[in-house]
Design goal:
The protein has 231 residues and is α+β, with helices and mostly antiparallel strands. Helices cover 43% and strands 26% of the residues.
Protein backbone atom coordinates (compact mmCIF):
# COMPACT_ATOMS: atom_id res chain seq x y z
CA UNK A 1 0.00 0.00 0.00
CA UNK A 2 1.30 3.52 -0.78
CA UNK A 3 0.29 7.01 0.18
CA UNK A 4 0.13 9.93 -2.27
CA UNK A 5 -0.80 13.57 -1.75
CA UNK A 6 -3.69 15.00 -3.77
CA UNK A 7 -4.12 18.75 -4.09
CA UNK A 8 -7.49 20.17 -5.10
CA UNK A 9 -8.36 23.80 -5.61
CA UNK A 10 -10.17 25.30 -2.65
CA UNK A 11 -10.02 22.14 -0.62
CA UNK A 12 -6.43 21.78 0.26
CA UNK A 13 -4.14 18.84 0.18
CA UNK A 14 -5.75 15.42 0.64
CA UNK A 15 -3.85 12.24 1.02
CA UNK A 16 -4.34 9.53 -1.66
CA UNK A 17 -3.92 6.02 -0.51
CA UNK A 18 -3.21 3.10 -3.03
CA UNK A 19 -4.66 0.04 -1.38
CA UNK A 20 -3.74 -2.43 -4.22
CA UNK A 21 -0.88 -4.78 -3.44
CA UNK A 22 2.19 -4.34 -5.70
CA UNK A 23 1.79 -7.92 -6.95
CA UNK A 24 -1.49 -6.99 -8.68
CA UNK A 25 0.19 -4.19 -10.58
CA UNK A 26 2.97 -6.51 -11.64
CA UNK A 27 0.40 -9.04 -12.84
CA UNK A 28 -1.36 -6.38 -14.88
CA UNK A 29 1.88 -5.32 -16.53
CA UNK A 30 2.72 -8.97 -17.16
CA UNK A 31 -0.64 -9.58 -18.84
CA UNK A 32 -0.16 -6.49 -21.02
CA UNK A 33 3.28 -7.76 -22.04
CA UNK A 34 1.86 -11.22 -22.74
CA UNK A 35 -0.91 -9.71 -24.82
CA UNK A 36 1.62 -7.73 -26.85
CA UNK A 37 3.76 -10.79 -27.36
CA UNK A 38 0.73 -12.83 -28.37
CA UNK A 39 -0.18 -10.17 -30.93
CA UNK A 40 3.34 -10.26 -32.36
CA UNK A 41 3.18 -14.05 -32.56
CA UNK A 42 -0.17 -13.91 -34.34
CA UNK A 43 1.15 -11.31 -36.78
CA UNK A 44 4.21 -13.44 -37.46
CA UNK A 45 2.01 -16.49 -37.98
CA UNK A 46 -0.13 -14.49 -40.41
CA UNK A 47 2.91 -13.40 -42.37
CA UNK A 48 4.16 -17.00 -42.51
CA UNK A 49 0.75 -18.18 -43.70
CA UNK A 50 0.72 -15.54 -46.45
CA UNK A 51 4.23 -16.53 -47.53
CA UNK A 52 3.23 -20.22 -47.60
CA UNK A 53 0.13 -19.42 -49.67
CA UNK A 54 2.17 -17.27 -52.10
CA UNK A 55 4.83 -19.97 -52.43
CA UNK A 56 2.17 -22.60 -53.03
CA UNK A 57 0.63 -20.43 -55.73
CA UNK A 58 4.01 -20.00 -57.45
CA UNK A 59 4.67 -23.73 -57.25
CA UNK A 60 1.24 -24.39 -58.76
CA UNK A 61 1.89 -21.98 -61.65
CA UNK A 62 5.34 -23.46 -62.20
CA UNK A 63 3.86 -26.95 -62.30
CA UNK A 64 1.23 -25.79 -64.79
CA UNK A 65 3.93 -24.25 -67.00
CA UNK A 66 5.95 -27.46 -66.76
CA UNK A 67 2.94 -29.56 -67.71
CA UNK A 68 2.18 -27.25 -70.66
CA UNK A 69 5.80 -27.43 -71.83
CA UNK A 70 5.80 -31.21 -71.60
CA UNK A 71 2.56 -31.39 -73.55
CA UNK A 72 3.97 -29.08 -76.25
CA UNK A 73 7.15 -31.14 -76.43
CA UNK A 74 5.15 -34.32 -76.84
CA UNK A 75 3.10 -32.67 -79.60
CA UNK A 76 6.23 -31.52 -81.43
CA UNK A 77 7.78 -34.94 -81.06
CA UNK A 78 4.68 -36.41 -82.67
CA UNK A 79 4.87 -33.92 -85.52
CA UNK A 80 8.52 -34.70 -86.24
CA UNK A 81 7.44 -38.18 -87.21
CA UNK A 82 5.59 -36.66 -90.17
CA UNK A 83 8.84 -35.24 -91.54
CA UNK A 84 11.06 -38.24 -90.99
CA UNK A 85 11.44 -38.67 -94.77
CA UNK A 86 12.57 -35.08 -95.36
CA UNK A 87 16.34 -35.78 -95.00
CA UNK A 88 16.06 -38.67 -97.46
CA UNK A 89 14.15 -36.50 -99.93
CA UNK A 90 16.73 -33.70 -99.62
CA UNK A 91 19.52 -36.23 -100.22
CA UNK A 92 17.75 -37.44 -103.38
CA UNK A 93 17.30 -33.86 -104.60
CA UNK A 94 21.00 -33.12 -104.03
CA UNK A 95 21.95 -36.31 -105.87
CA UNK A 96 19.67 -35.37 -108.78
CA UNK A 97 21.22 -31.88 -108.92
CA UNK A 98 24.69 -33.40 -108.99
CA UNK A 99 23.71 -35.77 -111.79
CA UNK A 100 22.19 -32.90 -113.76
CA UNK A 101 25.32 -30.82 -113.24
CA UNK A 102 27.50 -33.66 -114.51
CA UNK A 103 25.22 -34.39 -117.45
CA UNK A 104 25.02 -30.72 -118.52
CA UNK A 105 28.65 -29.86 -117.79
CA UNK A 106 29.44 -29.66 -121.53
CA UNK A 107 26.33 -27.69 -122.53
CA UNK A 108 26.77 -24.89 -125.06
CA UNK A 109 23.71 -22.76 -125.73
CA UNK A 110 23.93 -22.70 -129.51
CA UNK A 111 20.70 -20.76 -129.89
CA UNK A 112 22.39 -17.77 -128.26
CA UNK A 113 25.33 -17.95 -130.65
CA UNK A 114 23.15 -18.31 -133.74
CA UNK A 115 20.99 -15.41 -132.68
CA UNK A 116 24.06 -13.26 -132.04
CA UNK A 117 25.61 -14.10 -135.40
CA UNK A 118 22.36 -13.37 -137.22
CA UNK A 119 22.53 -9.83 -135.84
CA UNK A 120 26.25 -9.26 -136.45
CA UNK A 121 26.90 -10.96 -139.78
CA UNK A 122 28.15 -8.44 -142.39
CA UNK A 123 25.60 -7.37 -144.99
CA UNK A 124 27.80 -8.65 -147.84
CA UNK A 125 28.23 -12.11 -146.34
CA UNK A 126 25.75 -14.96 -146.18
CA UNK A 127 26.16 -18.51 -144.92
CA UNK A 128 25.28 -21.69 -146.74
CA UNK A 129 26.24 -24.28 -144.12
CA UNK A 130 27.23 -24.42 -140.43
CA UNK A 131 28.71 -27.53 -138.77
CA UNK A 132 29.51 -27.62 -135.03
CA UNK A 133 31.60 -30.41 -133.55
CA UNK A 134 31.99 -30.69 -129.81
CA UNK A 135 34.34 -33.14 -128.10
CA UNK A 136 34.50 -34.28 -124.50
CA UNK A 137 37.92 -35.26 -123.27
CA UNK A 138 38.19 -38.14 -120.81
CA UNK A 139 39.13 -37.13 -117.27
CA UNK A 140 42.86 -37.62 -116.57
CA UNK A 141 43.85 -40.53 -114.36
CA UNK A 142 45.00 -39.41 -110.91
CA UNK A 143 48.79 -39.55 -110.63
CA UNK A 144 49.32 -40.06 -114.35
CA UNK A 145 52.01 -37.86 -115.94
CA UNK A 146 50.72 -35.01 -118.07
CA UNK A 147 52.26 -33.86 -121.31
CA UNK A 148 51.81 -30.50 -122.97
CA UNK A 149 51.84 -30.21 -126.74
CA UNK A 150 51.47 -27.06 -128.77
CA UNK A 151 49.37 -27.35 -131.89
CA UNK A 152 47.61 -24.88 -134.14
CA UNK A 153 44.79 -24.60 -134.09
CA UNK A 154 44.51 -25.56 -130.41
CA UNK A 155 42.19 -28.47 -129.77
CA UNK A 156 39.77 -26.66 -127.43
CA UNK A 157 36.53 -28.52 -126.80
CA UNK A 158 35.31 -28.43 -130.38
CA UNK A 159 35.11 -26.47 -133.62
CA UNK A 160 32.53 -24.66 -135.71
CA UNK A 161 32.92 -24.66 -139.48
CA UNK A 162 31.12 -22.08 -141.62
CA UNK A 163 30.62 -22.26 -145.36
CA UNK A 164 29.34 -19.20 -147.16
CA UNK A 165 29.72 -16.58 -149.82
CA UNK A 166 30.90 -12.97 -149.78
CA UNK A 167 31.25 -10.19 -152.34
CA UNK A 168 34.99 -9.93 -151.78
CA UNK A 169 37.97 -11.02 -149.71
CA UNK A 170 37.62 -7.93 -147.53
CA UNK A 171 34.12 -9.10 -146.60
CA UNK A 172 35.55 -12.49 -145.64
CA UNK A 173 38.08 -10.70 -143.39
CA UNK A 174 35.26 -8.72 -141.76
CA UNK A 175 33.41 -11.97 -141.15
CA UNK A 176 36.47 -13.43 -139.39
CA UNK A 177 36.60 -10.37 -137.13
CA UNK A 178 32.98 -10.99 -136.19
CA UNK A 179 33.81 -14.58 -135.25
CA UNK A 180 36.83 -13.52 -133.19
CA UNK A 181 34.67 -11.26 -131.01
CA UNK A 182 32.39 -14.07 -129.91
CA UNK A 183 32.93 -15.16 -126.30
CA UNK A 184 34.25 -18.72 -126.07
CA UNK A 185 35.47 -18.77 -129.69
CA UNK A 186 39.09 -18.33 -130.70
CA UNK A 187 41.49 -18.81 -133.63
CA UNK A 188 39.09 -17.70 -136.33
CA UNK A 189 40.59 -18.40 -139.76
CA UNK A 190 39.52 -19.44 -143.23
CA UNK A 191 40.70 -22.55 -145.05
CA UNK A 192 39.85 -21.37 -148.53
CA UNK A 193 38.36 -18.43 -150.37
CA UNK A 194 37.81 -18.91 -154.12
CA UNK A 195 36.01 -17.08 -156.90
CA UNK A 196 32.47 -18.14 -157.70
CA UNK A 197 32.05 -17.56 -161.42
CA UNK A 198 28.32 -18.17 -161.23
CA UNK A 199 27.78 -15.27 -158.82
CA UNK A 200 28.97 -11.70 -159.21
CA UNK A 201 28.92 -8.79 -156.83
CA UNK A 202 27.57 -5.27 -157.46
CA UNK A 203 30.84 -4.26 -159.18
CA UNK A 204 30.69 -7.22 -161.53
CA UNK A 205 33.54 -9.02 -159.74
CA UNK A 206 32.89 -12.71 -159.02
CA UNK A 207 31.77 -13.41 -155.46
CA UNK A 208 33.92 -15.47 -153.16
CA UNK A 209 33.07 -18.88 -151.78
CA UNK A 210 34.80 -19.41 -148.45
CA UNK A 211 35.15 -21.88 -145.63
CA UNK A 212 36.04 -20.57 -142.15
CA UNK A 213 36.48 -22.17 -138.78
CA UNK A 214 36.74 -21.27 -135.08
CA UNK A 215 37.93 -23.24 -132.05
CA UNK A 216 35.52 -23.55 -129.14
CA UNK A 217 36.99 -22.95 -125.67
CA UNK A 218 35.58 -23.80 -122.25
CA UNK A 219 34.37 -20.20 -121.94
CA UNK A 220 31.58 -21.18 -124.32
CA UNK A 221 30.09 -23.58 -121.76
CA UNK A 222 26.89 -22.30 -120.18
CA UNK A 223 27.71 -23.63 -116.68
CA UNK A 224 24.14 -22.82 -115.66
CA UNK A 225 23.78 -26.10 -113.77
CA UNK A 226 27.11 -25.99 -111.96
CA UNK A 227 26.86 -26.54 -108.22
CA UNK A 228 27.52 -23.29 -106.42
CA UNK A 229 29.62 -23.29 -103.27
CA UNK A 230 27.43 -23.71 -100.21
CA UNK A 231 24.34 -24.79 -102.16
Amino acid sequence: MSTQTLTRSGVGTLPVVNLLPPEIGEQRRLRKLQGGLAGCVLAAVGVVVLLVVAAGSQVSRAQQDLDATKAQGASLQTQTGKYADVPAVIAKVDAAKLQRSQAMAQEIRWSFYLNDLSLRIPSKVWLTNVVATQTTDAAPVAGAPTTTTTTYPAAGIGTVTFEGKAYGHNDVATWLQVLARERGWTQAYFTDSTDDEQLTGPSGVPAKTFTSQVTITEDALSRRFDQKAGS
